Amino acid sequence: xxxxxxxxxxxxxxxxxxxxxxxxxxxSPDPPEKGKKRRKKKRKKKSRLIKFIKAVFIIFVVITLLxxxxxxxxxxxxxxxxxxxxxSITDLYNxxxxxxxxxIGTDEASGGASRSDSMILLSxxxxxxxxxxxxxxxxxxxxxxxxxxxxxxxxxxxxxGAQLLCDTIEYNFRVDIDRYVxxxxxxxxxxxxNLGGIDIxxxxxxxxxxxxxxxHTVSSGKSVHLNGAEALVYxxxxxxxSDYMRTFRQRKIITALxxxxxxxxxxxxxxxxxxxxxxxxxxxxxLDIAFTAYKGAFAAAFFDIQQMKMPEDNMMRTGYVGNQWxxxxxxxxxxxxxxxxxxxx
Length: 345
Hints:
The protein is α+β, with helices and mostly antiparallel strands. The chain contains 10 helices and 15 strands. It has a single domain (75-344), classed as Aminopeptidase.
């Protein structure tokens, strides 16, 4: 028994009365057993999260090693890219959230020197979530910095390969080129064939031109399936209309390839890339190739695609310079438009 005093009057109560009285309950909000169960659940969730992070990290490392290892043993041509000696990096537009990769297409089957047949700047813009393609017209008259004279843009490749071509574009258009990838047409056709072909819109005029001037036969329509050889013929059409339309067709091919990438299994994609790596020339080392593949895959899956040509019609005039026909750009307009397109929109 224990004496309990209420309003100064003592009375006797049983001890169990104290604990049965809700107004004097000594129980904690959570019984010890329940608290232990909650802590165990939290530990299990944390353990699962750690295991998931570890699994993702291991997969990332394995795929990185697989891609970089494949690139290393493929025999692709690695070329060290030097910093542009003709213009300061401070005079070039750049952003840590934009990766600019110059795609250079050449026809070197004969083994001799050739001009760059196509020059497309592929910009992965992580600020605005877009893939942007800029085709540089090959007949654009620009300063070739190593020569100190003006010539057509595609002649820069003849004088100094990919290095001078990148330097020339940077020098004239003031945009920083992070990396370059040079492909010849053998690689182009092989890649498309290894992916099972591509589907693009072919106009009646384009189909008629191909059927009349080549050994290939294609149909017209909104979604025409082309193999590698047919896609190459399509991309190289020039005399039908203009160099602008020719670059437009090239961008259509790349857009179709990007779409094909997103619908191809990783193993098939690695197999296709592995088959063409020996035909590739780039300043990307094996590890760079792996990380660029990650960035490109993410962009292809989630980013919208935009495109333009450089110069646009309102940024140039055409005519003969000496004995050669050329597109003469207003570089001030070109620089501003290119900056707005790549970094501001």
